[in-house]
Amino acid sequence: IPLDQLRGLLRQIEQEIVSVSGTTGRTARLDRAWFLVMLHCGLRSGEMRRLKLSDLDLEARRVRIEQSKGLKDRIVCLSQEAVSALSAYLAVRRPAAGDHIFIYRHWPLSCTYCGKRLHSLGGKCSVNITPHRLRASFATLLLNAGASVLTVQALLGHKHVDTTLRYARVYAVSYTHLR
Fold first, then answer.
1. Do residues 125 and 8 touch, judged by C-beta distance below 8 A?
2. Which residue from 129, 133, 118 is spatially nearest to 168, judged by alpha carbons?
């Protein structure tokens, strides 16, 4: 996703947070938290949905991904924006049936939740986005910021570097941090 569209989508999410309150405000904070975790950590939708509170270390700004695709475990760093969004969401998070970080109506997010929310939010700001495109954007942003392909490969949890190269597009343009 082009950087200006990612910024537009984040602005749409932020706008929903300030324009609503109560249950809807909680949902908007949930959306900002999982969106930034997926975008800034390159997580698959299933990885993000399975995250448990015990996987999260906000102080050290990292999260443990267990039994990912290929049954691999890895640790990924959280950006300060993701930590702030997670903290704001966790402050209003209701009790849940389990230990999952991201819940909606007391239950872990469904496998279609993120895709439906991105479709709805993207429609409001003319951005065509899917959870998988967030992952590809993460890889692209890192490579364009100068990260090595091997670093991006490790962060994405890919077994083969060819898979990583299919995800990302290297542009001649210099990207600044997403805000």
1. yes
2. 133
Of 76, 55, 84, the residue nearest 139 (C-alpha) = 76
Write the DSSP assignment of 3-69 as a string of letters: HHHHHHHHHHHHHHHHH--HHHHHHHHHHHHHHHHHHHHT--HHHHHH-BGGGEETTTTEEEE-S-G
What does the pLDDT read at residue 70? 62
Q: What are the average pLDDT values for consecutive 10-residue runs of the chain, which has 179 residues?
A: 92 84 78 95 91 96 82 86 96 89 94 95 93 90 88 86 76 47
* pTM recorded for the entire structure: 0.85
How far is 4 from 177, CA to CA, in rounded Å? 12
Amino acid at position 101, single letter: I
Supply the pLDDT for residue 71.
58
Active-site residues, by number, are 44, 69, 132, 135, 158, 167
The residues that bridge with 74 in the sheet, in sequence order, are 65
Q: Evaluate whether 149 touches 161 at the Cβ level (below 8 Å).
A: yes
Q: In whole angstroms, give the CA distance from residue 113 to residue 150.
A: 31
Comparing C-alpha atoms, which of 103, 110, 134, 109 is closest to residue 121? 134
Burial class (CB in 10 A: 0-12, 13-18, 19+), 104: middle
Tell me the two tokens of residue 37. Answer: 């975790």
